Amino acid sequence: MIKRDELKSEYQQHQFYEYFNSIFNYDILDTSISENIYLLRKTTHKLFYSEFENQLFETVMFLSMKTLVLDINNFSKEIGNKSEAYEQYIQQIKEENGINNFFDRYPYLLKQINREVRLIEESYSLLFDRFLKDLSELRSCFNITEPLSNVEFSLGDSHSQKQTVVKIEFKGKSIYYKPKSYDSYNILLELISLLKSNNIPSFSLPESLIKADYCWQLGVDYINSNNDEVKRIYLKYGVLAAFSEIFSITDLHMENVIVSGGDLYLIDVETFFQRKLNVQTNNFEGITVDTYQRIYETSLSNGLFPVQFEKNSAPNISGISGKGGKRKKGKYELINKNRGDMKLVKTDYFQEDSYNIPTLNEKMVEPLDYANEVIAGFRECYAFLMSQRAKVKKILEGFPKLRTRAIFEILPTMENFCKP
């Protein structure tokens, strides 16, 4: 059974909390899942378990919400007072017969909930096992002396088997659990070292403890910059752009880079050799396809720069200049709450600023003002790396088992690197 007072307050007050509670109160899920959840409650830290319960709630409601809204509207058709209809519906679903009848009507929903909850349970158990196994090493590696203070799940896209980024806070420091291979981290470290040994300013990587299939990464603080530091940051953005051009690094949107003082940190380092090369032609034709294909074949396709591919495309989320703000029709919102005629409608929402743009005197700078620094950083890094092809090839050859998402085709720049 999930304890109501252990959930986030907004989940405790949710319109369909009783639906969620009935699923676990009456052991609706597969027996093995219920048994494992009970075992996890007894054996894991309360902060981890509380966040696990919140993730269960989020998952169950994400899967169920459209079905619940459809079902309550059907239930309420012949009831004039829609507020009373809602109360009757909730009373029905609170009872064991009511929740069983609901899933008799929607058996595939129950099947999907079982599948997703099982995956969450397995990924959570794996996370906690890894945390306990690595804790002493984490404290030593990151100089952590304070006790555990908070845990946050689901901070990024989920990867295989519902695994996702988890933030673990110790008073004064935070680390991030990333359940994916970070083979490219050490390659980047060596390439960055090559730049710095030749006095070329480079972006940085967060301190990390790399394991076979996952890593722990020390959190980076977003710190105000002075004028000279801002210029250095945009030189480093140019260096990062040169890296992306040569090594086909993508996914450099505003949530994957952080500025701190005079440093630029690349947060996600799994993105080697994976540029998307082929434009989806469903919405484009003729010269439009040709133009977009040309963009895809350059560093403009890496997510670092603001490139708009359609008239009504999503707002700027690029690494170098993306900002928060209103997003058009991006999320569903429930209206007519606590009524039998409730509806889900798409609505605008607000996205917070990220940490990709430096602040000078507590105010965000205008990235376009530093275009010359970006160009200078790109040119210096690109020319240097091309002149050091033999050294770069030797570094890459030292990692024959590098794993990345995909390699579609050797690009012209990489082809130049491969020449003797």
Automatic annotation (TrEMBL):
Residues 106-408 form the Lantibiotic biosynthesis protein dehydration domain. It comes from the Bacteria. This is Prepeptide modification enzyme. It comes from Streptococcus salivarius.
